[in-house]
Design a protein that fits this description.
The protein folds into two domains: 124 residues, Homeodomain-like (Arc Repressor Mutant, subunit A), CATH 1.10.10; 146 residues, Multidrug-efflux Transporter 1 Regulator Bmrr, Chain A (Alpha-Beta Barrel). The longest helix has 19 residues. The chain is α+β, with helices and mostly antiparallel strands. Strands 1, 2, 3, 4, 5, 6, 7, 8 and 9 form a nine-stranded antiparallel β-sheet that branches. 38% of the residues lie in helices and 22% in strands. The protein has nine helices and nine strands. α2 packs across α3.
Length: 282
């Protein structure tokens, strides 16, 4: 269990770092380093395991502490707003009301109902084996052609499906074989809807090419209606497979989804998630 224990300790250290720096501007690179992960993978793993993004967690924790301070002190609202990262009392009041359901002024009244979001504590609970089929393959570099859009890591889970919706109304001749995350810089990344590139064909307007690096890939099959089947496997990858991974480490700030043509029966639809790896020495 040493691998799992080390992984849990590293991820918990990252959450402890967040807690110790709640009043500072979040530095996703430093947070991810505590878990020995790139910011790209850290944010994906955090969202899959915790059900919220890093930014949502920080905002929820700040709102919890702000409410406590409002209810037990006579500090000015503007001072509390600035302390917890808001530029004005108005922006603070709107965020406060969304979270707590009452205004900051009402929070100071006796008996006010406030919400509390407790700090996260990571643990692995064994509830019976889950079979997750995968294989490790080596692939040469290959080039894709497609359209890309820049996304914020905080909102990408909701915005990427909209991007696919836009593509379906104007496919630009693409089949949509791949969905590729690339060039993660900590807060944003490029997402591609792409096909294999054939050099003798013209590049449609609005499209460009991207070379997917060669190397080792962990390949996971997803079977069933989309997007549920892929979301289920994605969560299992980060919460069950990664903590017990031995002999390999995550590699590269990119990942890949591969889509086969939809089956007549949605239950038979097959897609794949591919995660780049590097083999550890020793």
């Amino acid at each position: 269990m040493a691998v799992v224990t080390d992984w849990i300790e590293g991820f918990q250290a990252s959450i402890d770092h967040i807690e110790q720096n709640l009043l500072n501007e979040p530095d996703i690179e430093k947070i991810a380093q505590k878990a020995a992960l790139s910011s790209f993978y850290y944010q994906r793993i955090f969202s899959a395991m915790c059900g919220i993004t890093v930014g949502e967690y920080i905002r929820a924790r700040r709102m919890t502490l702000a409410a406590q301070e409002l209810s037990c002190s006579d500090h000015k609202v503007i001072d509390i707003a600035l302390k917890y990262g808001y530029d004005s009392p108005d922006s603070f009041a709107k965020a406060f009301q969304r979270f707590h359901g009452i205004t900051p002024k009402q929070a100071r009244e006796s008996g006010a109902n406030l919400r509390s979001f407790a700090p996260l504590h990571i643990k692995i609970t064994l509830e019976g084996g889950t079979m997750l089929d995968y294989k490790i393959v080596e692939k040469a570099p290959f080039t894709v052609i497609g359209i890309k859009k820049r996304f914020d890591a905080e909102t990408s889970y909701n915005e990427i499906p909209k991007f696919w919706g836009e593509w379906m109304s104007d496919t630009k001749g693409l089949k949509g074989m791949f969905g590729i995350c690339s060039d993660m810089d900590g807060k944003t990344f490029d997402y591609w809807i792409a096909d294999l590139y054939t050099p003798w064909e013209d590049i449609p307007e609005g499209c460009s090419t991207y070379q997917v690096p060669g190397g080792l890939w962990a390949l996971f099959m997803c079977k069933g209606p989309m997007p549920e089947s892929m979301q289920k496997v994605n969560t299992e990858i980060w919460s069950q497979w990664l903590p017990t991974l031995q002999g390999y480490a995550l590699a590269g700030n990119y990942s890949l989804e591969f889509y086969l043509p939809p089956a007549n029966n949605p239950a038979d639809t097959v897609s794949y998630i591919a995660i780049p790896l590097k083999k550890l020495e020793g």
